[in-house]
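Two proteins were folded this term; both appear here.
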Amino acid sequence: MKRDTWAFWGRLAIALVSMVFVILLLLGGTVAANYKGLGNLVKVVTLVKGQYLFEVAPEKLVEGAIKGVVESLDDPYSVYLDAKTYSSLQEQIRGSFGGIGVLVGVKDHHLTVVKPFPNTPAAEKGIKAGDIIIQIGDRPTKDMDTETAVSLMRGPVGSRVELTIMREGVKEPFKVPLTRQEISVPTVEGRMLPNENNVGYIAISQFTENTGEELVKILHELRAEGMEGLVLDLRDNPGGELNSAIKIADQFLDKGPIVHIDYRIGRDHTFNAEPDQLDLPLVVLVNKGSASASEILAGAIKDAGVGTLVGTRTFGKGVVQTVFPLDNGAGLKLTTARYLTPKKHDIHKKGIAPDVVVDQEPDAKSDKQLETAIKLIREKIHK
């Protein structure tokens, strides 16, 4: 037998032992009843080695088995992250990366542009909110998770990537070539509203490690400009870093719980607000694109009664993911808990109902939701 064949079977033996060990951990007390399943695993791997047309590295079989374990959970939020995807996720959490400057989400199984950021390659090439990205390079994106999509769009500064876009009102898909740049996108934007000298407006696009500090800074600036009421815009914010959402909620709550974290294994935990709050009239804008950490913040504000929610029902992602580093630079994003609002409402797959329902047509010339929020703020200020 050739030396490389011996090496292959040696690596395969190690891989099989590792896989079987993992499966034994998963099966626990049901191992005896599932021994045939373990036998099938070994048999399938042996058949792939002996009968499959193309040679496959043992490491690839192990990675496939790991992916299969995670996919068997039937949980869209639990994902095995290869080294490249895991690295991109860490960059996203930090808030700085080489990329094209676009925020994406999944809508009806399609990768959809939520927002192109100003002064980035995506904005300069005319990519718009609502555009459907049907292909990144040569990779179709239907049913692709956002972490994989983001990893494909990011890369070294100066490198190129091509997106294939489907746009409403345009008959045929079209290609957009882009050159990646260093992207350091602020997640918080704020200003005093024109013709509303005492009303401030802050929009949070997502939650990264820096979002809390960004918000505190902008709040300080707007208060120095005479802000007497605030509109906080969480529309189309897909969420992000849990601790960031908690820090921001603490700016608006004076006491009591912000969120309850409910674990299947381990001790549950409640994050409580600390004294001193931004004691100003507050209206929060939400819609079906407000998810996860956005809902933690909106739910805390609603339950504590410190602000009024305006818009439409939120997305309904009431589960928490933990990212675990694995060997070889890979990672695992795993659903480890659910969260409950301060009044212990479980909003998963239900969302949060706004206090004032205002629908917004996609092509409307005016922002009815914002107009309603401003009206409510005026009434609160002049009470």
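Next, the second protein.
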Amino acid sequence: MRKVTKSPPPHDEMLQPSLHGNGAAASGHEASQSEAADGQRNILRRVVAASFIGNFVEWFDYAVYGYLAITISAVFFPESVGSAALLGTFAVFAVSFIVRPLGGFIWGHIGDKFGRRTSLSISIIIMSFATFAVGLLPSFDMVGYFAPVLLLVVRLVQGFSAAGEYAGASAFLVEYAPPRRRGLFAAVVPASTATGLLLGSLIAALLFGILSTGQMESWGWRLPFFLAAPMGLIGRYIRTKLEDTPAFRELAQDDDVVKAPVLSMFRDYWRPLVIAMCAVLLNAVGFYVVLSYMPTYLTTELGFGETESFIATTIALLTYVGFIFITGLASDLIGRKRMLIAAAVVFILFTVPAFMLLGVGNFAVVVIIEVLLGAMLTLNDGTLPSFLAEMFPTKIRYSGFAVSFNMSNALFGGTAPFMATLLIGVTHSRLAPGWYLMLAAVVCLAAVLCAKETSHEPLRET
């Protein structure tokens, strides 16, 4: 028989003064309440900081590869020319996503059986040292075809590590958050992801601005990867200073931890798993097309310089981080389902026209379009972490989130830059990425329409 546990009181109720007692007793009680509230706020601040920094490090490491794709293609695929070299680079980018479903199963199992903190502390170390290793790899000129093979191996390790990060950080925040602010707290995850991309974009723009092509291909491309190890150690240190989430500790105390969470997920929660996988599609394609592939698109397809392309994407990322918290808060107020439906509809209506306007050749127009596409994406991305975390009960939350998120990203997210480049080559249309993104929005809309609203449900019983 399932245990029914009462959700903790809303955070704002915890802060209200007691109405019982008077005099010294009342003052003492109010002081005790105030200290408890201060302690709770301090814990929440540390949780937010740990989740932000850890996720930021993971996704800075992972995104630098995309921003340096053109240089990496010259270093590791010099015998290929033009789009063929770029396709080789993006193929390695896509292949690294193959291990993400496997990573989702393993990190989900660890997170649901041994705790969220354990899983997150291990994954950040693996990602940081794998990224550091990229900067040490020999070029094609040094070791021939052995160079891209080594690059592929290290990218596979990165993909395995990244599989546990987004899901784990989201579950961690949602399970710590006040009940009425889960959407806002979970929005920290995509915000930190975008901040990691933002730093990667700034560093890439700086390197392309001050170094020659020869210097970039010789040694400049390695520099961002060397930042990974020290940042990863800082992120892990912060995470190990926190307790695991109240929801998981309660689960462990009640002896409700599932021995095989992945098996339980497939057996008892296959329907929300399928809905979640389809709902992730817009995020998977949109994130990598709008925020990762776009500098390459502007340079190779529209003829902008590398520095201009990175400046446009950097501005879009800055505004994305600001919008993401607004949409996370909005999902708390009007519901996850309405926000995700709105996101899918605007992408269906406006994506292709936006790509048409990108081709006008005016840099100011390009910046405006990128900012608008990023704002549209936040309607989905600011809502998705809390939506996915709330779809599954605590005992399999990490597994359900990690498997659904990573399956969609493996099939459609990691392949998005490759597919965009391939579709442009096949159709001879620069609008092809826009049509591809619109199709992802259609699938997402159909899935979300089948989902239940979860924003006001008690977390343990969702």
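The chain has a mean pLDDT of 83. The chain is about 80% helix and 0% strand. These notes refer to the second protein only.
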